[in-house]
Structure formats: C-alpha cells, structure tokens
Amino acid sequence: MAVEYYTPGVYVEEVSGGSKPITGAPTNIAGFIGESRSGVINKPVQITSWAQYFDTFIGYNLVDKMTPRGTVEKDADGNSVKEEVPYDKTTDLDWGVYGFFNNGGSKCFVVSVHNLEAGANNSDKIKKAQDDLKKAEDELKTTKDKNGVNKKIADLKKEIDNLNKPSSSSFDLTNAIIGNDGGPNKRTGLHCFKDALEVALLCAPGVTNSAVQQEILVFAETFNVFAILDAPKTLDELKNFGLSTDLPGLSNLASKCASKQAAIYFPWVNVYDPATKGDRPTAPSGFIAGVYARVDGERGVHKAPANEQVKLVTSLTYSLSDTEQESLNMKGVNCIRDFSDLGVRIWGARTTISATDPEWRYINVRRLFNMIERSLEGGIKWAVFEPNDGGLWTSLSRNTTAFLTRIHASGAFAGTLAQGFFVKCDASTNPQENIDAGIVTMEIGIAPVKPAEFVVIRISQKAPNE
Predict the structure, then answer these.
(1) Residue 22 and residue 401: Cα distance in Å, rounded?
(2) Are 272 and 259 in contact (CB under 8 A)?
(3) Residue 399 contacts residue 20 (beta carbons within 8 Å)
(4) Cα–Cα distance between 445 and 368 in angstroms, integer?
(5) pLDDT tens digits, one per residue of 71-107
(6) Are the CB atoms for 310 and 103 separated by under 8 Å?
(7) 58-62, 187-191, 289-293: which has the minimum mean pLDDT?
(8) Is 264 within 8 Å of 252 (Cβ atoms)?
(9) CB atoms < 10 A from the CB of 297, how many?
C-alpha cells in the first residue's frame, strides 16, 4: 500500500528492481566418512587443508605433515625427537582425504565414526610408561639384577601395548557408518551429513561392504549427492558380492550398486609412503573426488572428470589393457589406467546405472543436473507464499532464464541459447485448479553436452589427381 504524504518535502523510497539472481550451488565439496585415529565422533567437521585434517583426526604433532604418517623430527645426532604415526594407526579415511587435497580438493566435511586407538585418550599414561621404560633400560646397563630389570622392562612394554590397543576389538564399522537418525545432535554415521547439506560428493574410502554402499546410494539419491565408490581391493573379494572372482565378475559389479547418483572405480592405487620407503595400496575414491573438484574449478561441472591425471599415484594394483577394459566400461565400472606417455589417468566417465539407463549414462550430465536442481531449490525460495499470478510467473521465468544463460555461456549446454534450454512458466503450466491448490509450476528443458567418449578418425587413400 502506498504511503500517504502530508508534509511538503522530498521523500526517498527504496523500490525492488524485481531481479533475484540465482547463484550456482557448489559442486566440489566432498563428504568423507570412516575411521580416524582421533578426533570428534559422529559430527561433520569442516576441513579446508590437509594440515588441518592431520591435526584434527590424526593428532600427532609432527614437523612435516606430507603424508598421513608425517616425517619424524630428529635432533643433531639423528635421534627422533617426536614420535611418528605408527603404520597400523593410519586409516583408509586418512589416505582418502590426503589424496583429495593433493588432487585439487579445497573443502570437505569429515565424519569419523570411530577412533582407531584408545591410546589417543591415554597419552598421559603412555608417556609415563615410556619414561619408566627408558629409565629401566638405562638401569639395565649398570644393575646386577638383570633378571628383575628385564622383567620390569617386559611388563612396561606390555603395558604400553595394551594402552595402544584399539578401543574395541569387536567394533562394527558397517553399522557405525550406516548409523541412525536420532534428530539434531543425535545423528550417527551417514545421517550426520544431514547437518552438512553443502556436500555434493560422498566417499567412504576403502569401504567396499555391500550393505554400506547400498546405504550410501540411498542417501545420495535422497539428497542429490553424487557418490564415489571403491571397487574391492582384490578380485577375490568379489565373492562377497556373489560374483565370480575374475574380470567378468568385476564387470557385473556396477549392477550390484546401480544408481544414477554413483560411479565406481577400479583398481586401487599405490601411493609412496616415505616412512616405510615403499608403496601402500590405497582406495582411489578420495583421489577421484579431488580430481572432480579440480575439474569443476578449472573447466566446470559439465566437463567429464576423465582423461585426467591422478596425482601422487606411483602405480596401480592391477594393470588393465584396452581389451580388458571393454566390458568393464560398457557395464559402468570406471577404470584407472597407467599410460607410459600420459601417466596414471581416470579412463572412464560412466555412472553405475549406465548399462540400463542411457539417459544418465555420464557422470558429468548427472552432476550438472544436481547443480542446477540445488541452485534452483535455493534460489527461488523467495517465491514461496508470493501471489500466484502473472507477475510471479514472469519473475520466476526471467530469473531462471538469466541463470541458465550464464551456464550456457560456460559451455554446459549444446547448441545455441534456443537449442540449449527452455523455461516456461505461464498460464499453460499453471491452470486455475493448480492456483487454487497453491501450486506454481515452471517447466525447464536442458540439452547437456555429453563427452566424446569414442573419438573415431576415418582415413582413406587419396589418388594424386583427386
């Protein structure tokens, strides 16, 4: 209603221009779940660097945090000053997040469902036992009662081992990751990500349990999140899926986790661990998530995250040939290949449902739709409870068209503007019965670009006179 004016003068009014720009939803924020050595349990923790993850979930105070095991600080005589992370006290989650940040990831949310060792909470007791052990070892050099001191040393070593044992030998990782939804501040496992809805990618590094993967798929499809799954570490583990333990069995793995919101990768990758001076077989999902994030930043979500180098990988646990990859690719198992001239690269861009639903065959198409749907969901909330008439329809259509025009300019849609998309919100999409029911409907059509998966070159001989 217009304001009534009674006193002569100048009055300034702010009037809305009617433009409500829609901002693109983030696509490169990953969610990681699994076991950690230390840190808070069943709460999504925002992590923006590898050093932050190391301090939060590994906990050792090392001078160099280049890998999950770090580099031990030494004094001038070469003696260790600070304790290194034991080889068996790092987890698949540690290495997955490590791979994510080193392949281009910049932000993730981490949910730890279990602390790997009770020793994380026994640091004072461990330090005292270690001090006592050092004194006993020094005493052994001078004492005449070597049997008594040796027994004392053995008892102290046993005490330290017990303090370093996992907190629960019967811990069930499967049920811990699946978790329960007890409401705000009472969620566990995957349900914790309901408090971190920025997450666009979901990984459980190294967890190839079928029950967990099915729960991940349910969550991904419910919340428009794209899941990156790991194939089993060895072909022998395919028997856990009821498949033959060979490549034909592996080619059927995608059907066991078929979803338009998921991709699965094989094989595991080898990463150099300077603490052991050797390679460590590592689940690829965290590394792949980092590549997704890198490609999103450099090219956009519409670019297929394939034919991209996987950094830090020294070799693969299984080397595939073109012939071996044929059936895997056609059935939706994405392969990581080691090419002598190109390095280690992702050589597949298909979802796990690609064999049965060609509409959602490619990862980039599905993720592009996820981004657009999330962006529109958040960008047009202002329209709720607005008068459902032509003014609202025009505003919705104008703002959505402007948003999609920007996406078209990035190269995400095929053809011209008219060919790339359409937006329709008028009386034809909003009949009176819908208006009476409080419903406004906007129809959008999109023609996404699809990857050139097979590049065919036709060559023929040409006669000199032709």
Answers:
(1) 10
(2) no
(3) yes
(4) 13
(5) 656 666 666 655 556 555 789 999 999 999 999 999 9
(6) yes
(7) 58-62
(8) no
(9) 14
Three-class SS of the chain: CCCCCCCCCCCCCCCCCCCCCCCCCCCCCEEEEEEECCCCCCCCEEECCHHHHHHHHHCCCCCECCCCCCECCECCCCCECCCCCCHHHCCHHHHHHHHHHHCCCCCEEEEEEEECCHHHHCHHHHHHHHHHHHHHHHHHCCCCCHHHHHHHHHHHHHHHHHHCCCCCCCCCHHHHHHCCECCCCCECHHHHHHHCCCCCEEECCCCCCHHHHHHHHHHHHHCCCEEEEECCCCHHHHHHHCCCCCHHHHHCHHHHCCCCCEEEEECCEEEEECCCCEEEEECCHHHHHHHHHHHHHHCCCCCCCCCCECCCEEEECCCCCHHHHHHHHHCCEEEEEEECCCEEEECCCECCCCCCCHHHCEHHHHHHHHHHHHHHHHHCHHHCCCCCCHHHHHHHHHHHHHHHHHHHHCCCECCCHHHHEEEECCCCCCCHHHHHCCCCCCEEEECECCCCCCCCCCCCCCCCCC
- Could you give the angle at the alpha carbon of 298 between the alpha carbons of 294 and 301, nearest 5°? 75
| Mean local confidence (pLDDT), 19-28 | 91
Mean pLDDT rounded to a whole number for the chain: 89
Q: What does the CA dihedral 53, 54, 56, 57 come to, rounded to 10 degrees? A: 90
State how far the alpha carbon of 256 is from the alpha carbons of 177, 208, 332, in Å: 19, 12, 11
pLDDT band at residue 338 under the 50/70/90 scheme = very high
Residue 139 phi, psi (nearest 5): -65, -35
Q: Are strands 226-230 and 262-266 parallel, antiparallel or unpaired?
A: parallel
Mean pLDDT of 201-230: 97
Q: Which pLDDT belongs to residue 210?
A: 94
Q: Are strands 278-282 and 269-273 parallel, antiparallel or unpaired?
A: antiparallel
In this prediction, residues 21-47 reach a mean pLDDT of: 95
Residue 323 structure tokens:
């012939």
